[in-house]
Amino acid sequence: MTDAAPPPSAGLKARLLRLARGVPALEIFLSRSALTPILPARSITGRALMLVVVIMTFLAGLTAGAVHLIADASAEWSREIAREATIQIRPLTGRNVEADVAKVMALAKETRGIAGVRSYTREEGEKLLEPWLGAGLDLKELPVPRLVVLSLSGEGADWSGLKARLAEAVPTASLDDHRLWLERLRAMARMLVIVGVIILALVLVATGLAVTFATHGAMAGTAHIIEVLHLVGAEDRYIAREFQRHFLRLGLKGALIGGGLAVLFYALVSLSSARFGQAAGAEQVEALFGRFSLPGTGYLSVLAIALVVSALTAAVSRITVFRSLSMSGS
Amino acid sequence: MAQMEKNPAGTELPTELVRFENVGLRYGIGPEILRDLDFAIPSHSFQFLTGPSGAGKTTLLKLILQRLRPTRGRVTLFGRSVNEITKDELAQLRQRVGIVFQDFRLLDHLTTYENVALPLVVQGREEASYRAEVIELLKWVGLGDRMHVPPVILSGGEKQRAAIARALIVQPRLLLADEPTGNVDPTLARRLLRLFVELNHTGTAVVLATHDLALMDLVDARRLVLAEGQLHIYD
After folding, report:
1. CA separation for the pair B196, B175 (Å, rounded)
2. B87 and B201 co-located in one domain
3. Which residues 212-231 in chain A show a CB within 8 A of chain B?
4. Between chains, do B111 and A326 touch, taking CB under 8 Å as contact?
5. Which of residues 118-157 of B touch A (CB under 8 A)?
6. Which of A94, A174, A266, B213 is the most buried (most CB within 10 A)?
7. pLDDT, mean over chain A
8. Residue B181 resides in a domain
9. pLDDT, tens digit (0-9, with 9 covering 90-100), for B32-75
10. Which domain holds residue B145?
């Protein structure tokens, strides 16, 4: 290593170091790798901390993926709901429901922003009640409302005009433009995303605390090394950088394993939902979350979290060492 | 004000590397274990620091290195007092001091080569710039064939030579050696002493703490004798 010719990788390393100039984390990671790290690479504290980082990154990755799924599903619900509106015609004694449906359809077709109109037959309307009332019931005696579904063109329908005309021509008809549903769904999705972000923040804070404790442990375990470093003229920032390098490596390793496991989890879930999509309960899951497969940006955010966790690990250890050294004197 | 001399680069350096002025030290509310210390260590000088075990030799070395602060008086290293400098400045002053411990203080997870190179590594030097220097020094102290092994498999004498090499690699202006011959046989002790004398001839001031009278008799040098907390100087 020392009196022999430089290894063939030395040129590559020098090029990488030139590229990494200006990016402190990369510079620290690449520099001095030919020599043994001044802090011992393997220790019990290190292994325990790496396991914590693996678990935390896995949990953070799962949370980030779930946030993505919910946000995407919510956007999809909104799109679908916003494409349709419904007119409900209540049957009333003395009124001809079929004539009312025809009137409603005629009025709807004339309205700006409505691309298509379709009425549900009485049988179709009764079928919609099956999930609540069960199948095989004779609903002929019940006043089941008739539905007219409007497909929107997207140019902004004239709801107030339609409402006014309906009130005049068919008083038993009521228009539901789904705005209430949409608002509720959006509020629920927003709430779930906020909860996800809070969980993410808590996981990151817990990781930071675990790193602080591990750094104190590592400092106690390497007090003799720190003393020697001080005596040979090492500045605090040099010692802090050594700890940062040590924990960056450890954090990067742990975070990539944890992030990789989270990516693997979502890939497996996506595969199995595609394969066993017809299984019991899968329809409900699909109705809520679509295909339950993480989009590309979801995988990217899991990897970004892995990088954030490793950077956090390095930064927290550096700050902890600096604080600890400045309080201890030397 | 300390006297100054010019170094080869033309900048001024104090001729007194260390100065103690009316220094006393006590731990807590106990009695003073060192008192009324008033002396200087000139550049290029050689001195033994001696006294019975427990007299405070190691404590005095710690005061010189500014690892301990005196409870009274003033200690300056290269003309600077610990009370006037930042931690970073203190670290830079220590880079001009070589120190040899009785218990070596080598880092077991590093090789002998890496231990010796440590003071240069902490200065941020690239390995290519010091590799030849370190190898040459290791050969000079007789460890040329042991440079790639960790300290745990070195003998006591080899460890001491590695520790000395680590102290010398920065070409210090001042070398502090705390019982460097305490763990070696008399023959090796004499060899190590010759090494310190040779180093002194190259311009490094040496403070060698020892209680080995036979060893001190081999060199005609200044003696700083610690007894009952006070320092007696025999030039």
Report:
1. 9
2. yes
3. 224-225, 227-231
4. no
5. 118-119, 121-124, 127-128, 131, 134-135, 147-148
6. A266
7. 80
8. yes
9. 899 999 999 999 999 999 998 888 899 999 999 888 889 999 99
10. 105-165
Confirm if A84 and A178 have CB atoms less than 8 A apart: yes
Min Cα distance A309 → chain B (Å) is 28
ipTM summary value: 0.85
- Coil/strand/helix, residue A83: coil
Half-sphere exposure at residue B139, Cβ-oriented, CA atoms within 13 angstroms:
7
Query: Domain residues for A304?
Result: 24-78+183-328
Residue B52 domain-assigned? yes
Task: Report yes or no on B197 lying in a domain.
Answer: yes
3-class DSSP state for residue A152? strand
- End position of a domain, from candidates A110, A143, A171: A171
Q: Is residue B30 in a domain?
A: yes
Instruction: State whether residue A5 sits within 8 Å of chain B by CB.
Output: no
Q: How many CB pairs under 8 A join A and B?
A: 78
What's the pLDDT score for residue B64? 92
- The pLDDT tens digits for B144-194 are 999 999 999 998 889 989 999 999 999 899 999 998 887 778 888 888 898
Contact between chains at B107 and A1 (C-beta distance less than 8 A): no
Contact B91 A35 (CB under 8 A): no
Minimal Cβ distance to A35: which of B94, B114, B123: B114
Contacts of B118 in chain A (CB under 8 A): 38, 228-229, 232
The DSSP 8-state label assigned to residue B177 in this structure reads E
**How far apart are alpha carbons B116 and A136 in whole angstroms?**
91
